[in-house]
Design goal:
single chain; alpha/beta; Rossmann fold; 5-stranded parallel β-sheet; two-stranded antiparallel ribbon; 7 helices; 7 strands
Length: about 220
Amino acid sequence: MAESGGSEQDGHDMVFADASLAQRYITFRPQPPQALVQRVTQHWKAGLKGQLPEKSVLVDVGCGSGQSCHQFAEHFDTVVGVDISPDQLQQGRERYKHLLNVSFVEGSAEDLPFAASSVDVITVCAAAHWFQLQNFYRQVDGVLRPGGVLAVYSYWNAYPIYNSICLRDTIMQVWEGLGFWPQQHQHLRTGYTALPAAYADDVYVSAAEGGFEVSHPS
């Protein structure tokens, strides 16, 4: 498998750090379905065989404005979102300030600001394809506790319905026609199946298999 060549810090995706974009991002970016949140949480608990930590910690890397990490607030004692964009983080702080166990800190995937063996679960939503993955994996190994879990997931485009007609093919024609997408976006198209594996016991679950669907009323 070929490693993603991009990084959060090499300029490929710094457009997400723009202040005006951050305001739109928190409104329009999809958040993971509850089925996925439950799958990640259950997988972690199953591996511990009932020996849950006294204080559980989840870290969401590349959290943006927090669309993913806030959903784990009811399952973990502490949830921390990490991102390189202060503007994205500020949006998250404002939107989720009512969740007292959720906080946001500035940092990068390749230099996680956490002590060794201090984190139970690390999640990454629609961001891993930008990381220097081998450096990120080393960071994960350092901060995860024994029995910890790394959960990497994403989403790919939409199936909008207008007048009972699915516009998916039209969207894909536009996507192909624009032609300026960086190489890392190919990982989204393949459902992350080509990302380098982090561990020998990695588990891959497709959207269809896991029932991971985000839907909105028309």
